[in-house]
Amino acid sequence: MNQSRNVKIVATLGPSSSDRAMIRTLFETGVDVFRLNMSHGTQEDQRDRYELIREIEHELGRPIGVLADLQGPKIRCGVFADAPHELTVGQAFRFDLDDTPGDATRVHLPHPEILGALTKDSTILVNDGKIKMKVREAHGDAVVAEVLVGGEISDRKGVNLPDVVLPVAALSDKDRSDLEFACDLGADWIALSFVQRAADIEEAKALIKGRALVMTKVEKPAAVRDFPSILAASDGIMVARGDLGVEMDLADLPAIQKSLIRACRDVGKPVVVATQMLESMISSPVPTRAEISDVAGAIYEGADAVMLSAESAAGDFPVEAVQTMADVAMRVEADPQYREQIDASRTAAKASIATAITAAAREVAEAVEVSAICCFTHSGTTARLAARERPNAPIIALTPIRGTARALTMYWGLHCLVAEEVTRFKLAVVSAARAAKAMGIAEEGDRIAVTAGVPFGRPGTTNILRVAPVDEQAIYEGENNY
User: Fold this and answer.
1) Percent helix, strand, coil in the chain (nearest 5)?
2) Which distant-in-sequence residues (6+ apart) come within 8 Å of 61 by Cβ?
3) Bridge partners, residue 451, by sequence
4) What is the pLDDT along the chain (482 residues), one digit of tens a residue?
5) Strand spans (E) along 258-329
6) Is 426 within 8 Å of 476 (Cβ atoms)?
7) Gap between the Cα atoms of 263 and 270, Å rounded
8) pTM to 2 decimals?
9) CA 431, CA 419: separation in Å to the nearest integer?
10) Helix 173-185 vs helix 43-60: angle between axes, to the nearest 10 degrees?
11) Residues classed as catalytic
């Protein structure tokens, strides 16, 4: 059950990790959630990978989360007559609606709505930010920009516009098709790209209709500026440092990452740190020291999960990359300073019976040495609140709903288990004690803290906490009133 660590590992599947043996090895090495990147491959490729995940899940008897990551709209320039061309500092360059192949002075930008939104002094970035320009003239159907940082430009290079909230929907036609496909497939999480406003998330949720949870990728400056409303509308957040690093000053990224993680922890929503975490391991079996520090930093800050992209999808050493992340997590979480930082950065939750119960469970775990906090949940709320508390005891999330167990694999510290439905608290305590023993988390004679909502089967009713012995006879003798 990966009991030795709390932070979760998300790994992207791709050409290097698409067969059954490799997917199973990655899971057994430490992956908690597999990412299906809808930007690459066909829907049938992703279906094959999904079916293998579910077969392995059945074989091993452990829930596995699946995140389907939508591509989002891509803004690209047109083609050139004789590509590539070298743009030099100080020269003028024009973007327009003329679909004639470009040259060293101009190129087609097939997005009239974007040309219309650009104004004087807007920044234009091309080829992952390698080329930087500033708009000097805006004519509605064309702009003329001055090259501030030169470089090579060629066919269909990506264009980023960090200064402008673009009049472009977060969901392209391809995204809508992929979203419906992923929901029908059974993905537990849908990751949204290109989000600029909360309305983008609401649009996706209207299409998802409760079939999956929504993870918003923060990769646009507009999303950072409007993060409170973005977070309120989302079920989870991904700090997507790739595009974010292109559109914002790289020196600002660490502070942004830290603030986003803190905000997510405050409200108990999972936050994933992604992009280039172990980039060198695409071609090397050993990471750089800086990469190790990067992964460790995200864990020290309290992230729920860290993610591998090309390292596991297309790299030469996917298993080694997962093992490296798992090793770093275990070392960090064993450091006394980690626990000090986690406890010091905890904030009070919004007052409710459920939050009070889960906070009390964490305090009990610290005071009387319980072996585990066991949460019975249908919707996942009880377990999510327990994860928000970041207790020093393992959290076992028990639910009769397989989809809930799969979705909870994204959350810090949760060991998820599909359990039989229970109708009485006494039976819940017995089931929790059996689960804790079966997982090797507790032994006969230990104590566990059990939280649940009574009456059972009603979401959002967490209202009871009991410290119980891991001893069925003692449980039955002490629970005659339930």
Assistant:
1) 40, 25, 40
2) none
3) 375, 465
4) 456 799 999 999 999 999 999 999 999 999 999 999 999 999 999 999 999 999 999 999 999 999 999 999 989 999 999 889 999 999 999 999 999 999 999 999 999 999 999 999 999 999 989 999 999 999 999 999 999 999 999 999 999 999 888 888 889 999 999 999 999 999 999 999 999 999 999 999 999 999 999 999 999 999 999 999 999 999 999 999 988 999 999 999 999 999 999 999 999 999 999 999 999 999 999 999 999 999 999 999 999 999 999 999 999 999 999 999 999 999 999 999 999 999 999 998 888 888 999 999 999 999 988 999 999 999 999 999 999 999 999 999 999 999 999 999 999 999 999 999 888 888 889 999 999 999 999 999 899 999 988 787 677 678 899 999 987 666 655 554 44
5) 271-274, 305-308
6) yes
7) 10
8) 0.92
9) 8
10) 20
11) 35, 76, 217, 275
Residue 339 CA to residue 200 CA, distance in Å, equals 37
Closest to 10 in 3D by CA, of 433, 325, 296 = 325
Judge residue 386's burial from the number of C-beta atoms within 10 Å of its C-beta, 0-12 exposed, 13-18 middle, 19 or more buried: buried
The token pair at 421 is 């439905």
Write out the two tokens for 326. Answer: 């798992």
Retrieve residue 320's tokens. 């080694």
Q: Which amino acid is at 87?
A: L
Of 414, 293, 423, the residue nearest 6 (C-alpha) = 414
Cβ contact 445:424 at 8 Å: no
Own/partner contacts of 199-204, CB < 8 Å, gap of 24 or more, are: 200/169, 200/170, 200/171, 201/170, 201/230, 201/233, 201/234, 202/233, 203/169, 203/170, 203/171, 204/170, 204/171, 204/179
Domains of the chain: 8-72+170-338 (3.20.20.60), 85-160 (2.40.33.10), 353-478 (3.40.1380.20)
Tokens of 1: 């059950």
Cα angle 139, 140, 145 (rounded to 5 degrees) comes to 55
| Structure-block tokens of residue 246 | 């292109």
